[in-house]
C-alpha cells in the first residue's frame, strides 16, 4: 500500500473548505481518504503532542484510527485529530526572514540578570 | 489428542464445557479476524482489526487458562491452555457456527463482528452480575474491549449499509448469508442453562433491539427468515472449521509441546 503524505502550506487551501467535524459530502467521488494529524495527551496536565498522521473518511473514524494506531501501548488518555489541510504551516523557504533575525538578539533571553543566591530552581 | 481422562471430564463437566464454549467463540473469531492481518483495505483498518483479533485472543487465553486450572484440580493431571486450544478435534470445539464461517469480504467480516460482538456484549454484561471469582474477573476485563469492538463494527455496518450502491448491495448479501447463523448464539444449550439460562431471554431481547436499531440506521432491511442453523455448541460444525483447525493446530501437532 502506498501512502502519499502531503503537507499543505499556507494559502494552498482557503478557509472556506469544510471543517473536520462535517462529513465530506463528495466522499463517493474521492478515492483517497483525507489525511488527518493526530495529537495525543499522554497524561493529565500535559499538553497534546503531535503523534503522526493517518487517513480516515471522517472525524469519528479518524479518532478511532488514531486510537488503534497511536495508543496501542497505553500512550494516551486524550486524542485530538484535525484534518491536515486545516494546518497552515510556515514556508521552509521563508526560514531566513522568519527565524534567523532572532538568532543574534541574545538580549531577549533573560540571562543578564544577577539572581540572588536565595532564589532556587531558576 | 487430549488424555482420555481429560476428554471424559470435559464431556461430563458443564462448568468446563461452558468455559470452553466461551473460549472457543473468542479463539475462532480471533483466528478469522487475524487472517486479515496484512490484507486490510487500508493500513489503519488493518491495524484496527488486528488489534481486535488480539483482544479476542487474550479473552480466549484467560478462559482456557481458567478451564485448564479446573481440569488440573479435578483430574490431577497438569493441563495447559495450549492443550485445550491445539489438541482438541473439530467435534470437541463448542464455538457457535457463525465464528468459523469464512471471512468473505470486508463487509461480511465487520457484520460478523457486529453480530457476535453485540451478543458477547450483553452476555458478558450479565456475567459481570451473576458470575463469581475468576469468570467475573474475565468478564470485567473483556467487557471494555468488547464495547469497543461493537462500536467499531457497528460504525462500519452503518458506513457500508448506508454507503454507495455497491457497499449497500454487499452488506445485504452478507446479512442474508450470516443471518441464519445468529439464532444459535441466543439459544442456550445444556451447559449454559445452569449459569445463564434464566438470563437468556433478556440477552436475546437486548441483542435483537441493538441489531434492529443499527440495521435501521444502516438502511438495511431486517431479515425476515427465522429458521436457524444449530449444532456448533454440540460439536457439529460446518466444513470450514476443520480447515481452520488444520492450519491453526499444525505446529503443536507436528511438534508437540513446542514453545517459542
Written account of the structure:
The complex is a heterodimer of chains A (122) and B (260). With 122 residues, chain A is of the alpha+beta class. Chain A contains two helices and three strands; from the N terminus they run ββαβα. Chain A is flat, with a radius of gyration of 20 Å. The longest helix of chain A is centred in the middle third of the chain and has 12 residues, at 59-70. In chain A, strands 2-1-3 form a three-stranded antiparallel beta sheet, covered by helices on one side. Chain A has a domain at 35-108: Phenylacetic acid degradation B (Ubiquitin-like (UB roll), Roll), CATH 3.10.20. Chain B has a single domain (4-254), classed as Ferritin, CATH 1.20.1260.10. Chain B is 72% helix and 0% strand. Chain B has helices at residues 4-12, 14-34, 43-75, 81-86, 97-100, 106-130, 133-161, 165-179, 183-186, 190-196, 200-217, 239-254. The chains are: A alpha+beta (122), B mainly alpha (260). At the A-B interface, α1 of A face α3 and α7 of B.
Key descriptive features of the protein:
heterodimer; A: 122 residues; alpha+beta; Ubiquitin-like (UB roll); three-stranded antiparallel sheet; 2 helices; 14% helix; 16% strand; flat; B: 260 residues; mainly alpha; Ferritin; 12 helices; 0% strand
Amino acid at each position: 500500500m502506498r501512502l502519499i503524505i502531503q503537507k499543505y502550506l499556507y494559502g494552498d487551501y482557503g478557509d472556506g473548505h469544510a471543517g473536520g467535524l462535517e462529513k465530506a459530502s463528495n466522499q463517493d467521488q474521492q478515492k483517497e481518504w483525507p489525511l488527518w494529524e493526530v495529537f495525543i495527551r499522554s497524561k493529565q496536565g500535559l499538553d497534546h503532542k503531535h503523534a503522526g498522521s493517518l487517513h480516515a473518511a471522517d472525524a469519528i473514524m479518524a479518532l478511532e484510527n488514531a486510537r488503534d494506531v497511536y495508543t496501542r501501548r497505553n500512550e494516551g488518555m486524550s486524542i485530538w485529530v484535525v484534518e491536515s489541510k486545516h494546518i497552515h504551516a510556515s514556508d521552509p523557504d521563508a526560514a531566513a526572514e522568519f527565524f534567523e533575525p532572532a538568532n543574534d538578539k541574545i538580549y531577549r533571553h533573560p540571562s543578564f540578570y544577577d539572581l540572588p543566591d536565595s532564589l532556587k530552581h531558576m | 489428542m487430549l488424555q482420555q481422562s481429560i476428554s471424559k471430564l470435559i464431556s461430563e463437566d458443564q462448568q468446563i464445557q461452558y468455559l470452553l464454549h466461551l473460549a472457543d467463540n473468542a479463539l475462532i473469531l480471533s483466528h478469522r479476524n487475524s487472517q486479515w492481518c496484512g490484507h486490510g483495505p487500508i493500513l489503519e483498518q488493518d491495524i484496527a482489526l488486528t488489534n481486535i483479533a488480539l483482544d479476542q485472543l487474550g479473552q480466549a487465553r484467560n478462559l482456557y487458562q481458567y478451564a485448564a486450572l479446573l481440569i488440573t484440580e479435578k483430574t490431577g493431571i497438569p493441563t495447559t491452555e495450549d492443550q485445550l486450544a491445539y489438541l482438541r478435534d473439530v467435534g470437541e470445539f463448542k464455538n457457535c457456527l457463525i465464528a468459523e464461517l469464512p471471512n468473505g469480504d470486508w463487509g461480511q467480516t465487520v457484520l460478523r463482528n457486529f453480530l457476535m460482538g453485540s451478543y458477547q456484549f450483553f452476555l458478558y454484561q450479565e456475567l459481570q452480575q451473576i458470575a463469581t471469582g475468576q469468570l467475573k474477573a474475565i468478564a470485567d476485563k473483556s467487557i471494555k474491549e468488547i464495547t469497543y469492538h461493537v462500536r467499531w463494527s457497528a460504525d462500519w455496518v452503518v458506513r457500508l449499509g448506508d454507503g454507495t450502491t455497491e457497499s449497500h448491495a454487499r452488506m445485504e448479501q452478507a446479512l442474508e448469508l450470516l443471518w441464519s447463523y445468529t439464532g444459535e448464539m441466543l439459544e442456550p444449550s445444556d451447559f449454559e442453562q445452569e449459569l445463564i439460562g434464566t438470563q437468556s431471554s433478556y440477552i436475546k431481547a437486548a441483542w435483537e433491539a441493538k441489531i434492529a436499531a443499527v440495521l435501521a440506521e444502516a438502511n438495511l432491511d431486517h431479515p425476515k427468515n427465522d429458521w436457524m442453523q444449530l449444532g456448533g455448541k454440540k460439536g457439529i460444525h460446518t466444513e470450514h472449521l476443520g480447515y481452520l483447525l488444520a492450519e491453526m493446530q499444525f505446529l503443536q501437532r507436528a511438534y508437540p509441546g513446542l514453545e517459542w
